[in-house]
Amino acid sequence: MDFLGKVVASICASAIGGGITLYFGLNVMVASWLDIAASNSNHLGIALIIAGAIGLLTFATLYLLQSRKPQRLKKTAVKEPSKVEQSTPDQPIRIPYVKIREMANEHGWQLTDNQTPSGNRAYALERLMRQAAVDGKLKVWGRRCTKVTGTNPLLAIPANHFDEFEFAHGYLHPDNVKNENTHTGKLGRSRHDFAEKNFCDLYVARADIERILSAPKPDDPLMYWGE
Question: Which end of the chain is more exposed for a tag (fewer CB within 10 A), N or C?
Fold first, then answer.
């Protein structure tokens, strides 16, 4: 068998070993060709050139395969940023009006029952809230008071609305009121007496209420803060 025939036979023999990795398979091929070249000194130079080219090809192939692994890891490691709902000046967190009672009690307002002291404290808090709304320091939302209020959209109530209307009394200190019944109006008047100019089903900005409740309480003996 001539030299080229031996080279072809060596390549075929090396290719049969399919379970051997590329790196070690090529090394076996190079070793085989060097053995052949050793037995045929006339072709030793050609064998060395081929072996060098195969070695360079092996190194380049392994380098390219290795360099692609970190890129795959980076792609799999990328995660979508989590979306966290946060309060902003333009989109404050709203709470139902009746939740003010719970928050007020946590701040020591003692809106615990329907008795006179609780009612007086509720009046005082309603006055503070109305003034804050007029000053633009309390954001309030509501639905136009109609026969079917629940179908109306929730609207931001303008500050000048509270020049004329107040927060209807009786929805801060009782324990069993529904938020859909809360409204703006005038003392002693029905919520349906204002030709749909007032608002029902009220909501307020939580942060604004927190500031109002955290301020010093009015010094009024009628409120009777007790021990």
Answer: C
